[in-house]
Amino acid sequence: MGRLKSLGSSLSRLDAPLTYLPNDDRAARRNPLRHLYGTARWRRLSWDVRLAAAFTCAMCGRIEGAKGQTAADHIEPHRGDPALFWARSNLQCLCKPCHDGVKQAEEARTR
């Protein structure tokens, strides 16, 4: 416990206040439903979407067989609307490059 006591005095000498903490609520304000991505319900829905699409990207047509190389993507951004978040008809299968690059850039432009 001696180390923890000495850490307190080091923290008080920080030049600038910390601007980001892992539990910061800024991410939650941007996407209030973010916590739902970790639920069993989302994992099941995501799997069903990708399986129905035969792991084929709706944008580029790439077929991905490796685990984690596809994502269930919201066609219309849900922007915190639970009905739109869970709507199966609003989901598509995308490969990681299309989801993480092309689609995210499109959504950033429309914000």
Automatic annotation (TrEMBL):
- HNH nuclease domain mapped to chain residues: 45-100
GO molecular function terms listed in the Swiss-Prot or TrEMBL record? endonuclease activity; nucleic acid binding; zinc ion binding
InterPro entries listed in its UniProt record: HNH, HNH_nuc
- Whether Nuclease counts among this entry's keywords is yes
| Keywords (A to Z) from UniProt | Endonuclease, Hydrolase, Nuclease
The record ties this protein, via Gene3D superfamilies, to:
1.10.30.50
Q: Which domain of life is it from?
A: Bacteria
Q: What is this protein called?
A: HNH endonuclease
Q: Which organism is it from?
A: Wenxinia saemankumensis
